[in-house]
Amino acid sequence: MSAHGPMPRSSWVFPALAVLLFLVVTVTGYSFTLSTGGGVFAIVLLVILFGTVFAAVHHSEVIAERIGEPFGTLLLTLAVTIIEVALITTIMLGDKPAPELARDTVFAVVMIVCNGLVGLCVFIGGLRYREQGFQVSGANVYLSVLIALATLTLIMPNYTLTTPGPVYSTLQLGFVDLVTIVLYGVFLYTQTVLHKDYFVHERTEGEGGEAHLPGKLLALSIVLLLISLLAVVLLAKKFSLVVDAVADRIGAPPAFAGLLVALLILMPEGVSAITAARKNDLQKSINLALGSSLATIGLTIPAVGLATYVIEQPLVLGLNAQSSVLLFLTFLLSMLTFGTGRTNVLFGLVHMVVFAVYAFMVFVP
């Protein structure tokens, strides 16, 4: 979907279908199982859900073009984070306890974004333009906050003494949630007020500027964005049942659910990042990619932590040794990749190899 030109039909058809599907399922009391022809329902649900997520991102982009950067990228990131929190919380509340889902999803997002998506964007940009530039100062801000948040939420729980790892005590989790929100809030203030120039690379002539959208189109996009987000939240429960059924059928490991949720929520944002790299706007790709990782940890972990406190469920956060090594390697490579302000094909390929290792280890740990 493009944010330019007339509004595509899919941007309002899929949200309408999602709301309609939810109403039909609710009224009929349909109970999903793969053994009773549920495969067709699962396919229909996934198609509508993916389409609705893309529609939400499209409307976010329409609004983003009006408000400009970096606020536009921030809006897109927040919309995707709302979808992520809804899916994670709903699956955790499903028939099968999934205390590790938030950890697996957050880790999957970091791996997909910092290795798969960043690697692909850098690789594509390198093939097309040999080298691409970006703001080193902005990348350093992203990485410093991301490394701190990832360590506090995914590594530190393994080494606490109040409770045996990999979980925080209630008091510890509340404190970490608080400092996570504060740190992310200060990052947003830095990105949108103090140092906006860190996150906007110098554009080529003829590019940039805020889009002058008709008021009616902007208002319609705002309404449809809210409907799209609501529709995804409403269908999250049925999606959780499909995830459980598919995982049981193929004998997938527990981390599979987190990987699937991460792929669903990151796909439209990933398409936007890759498109930006193809247009020689690697700065926007970095804003989308690293911004997604930051929002996932800075907003999702506190939200899920609050939800688990309310529903009195445990929240497993600490990574195992294998995943910790991959996380450390990812941050080390990221510091090297974003350390010079210029990228090339080899940087992208190395990141994609690390992502391939992560994906392989999910199924063959």
TrEMBL record:
> By its UniProt entry, which Gene3D superfamilies does this protein fall under?
NCX, central ion-binding region
* Recorded GO CC terms: plasma membrane
| Assigned keywords, A-Z | Membrane, Transmembrane, Transmembrane helix
Q: What is its main location?
A: membrane
Which intervals hold domain Sodium/calcium exchanger membrane region? 41-192, 221-363
Q: Please report the record's description of how this protein sits within the membrane.
A: Multi-pass membrane protein
Q: Where does the protein end up?
A: Membrane
Q: What is this protein called?
A: Ionic transporter y4hA
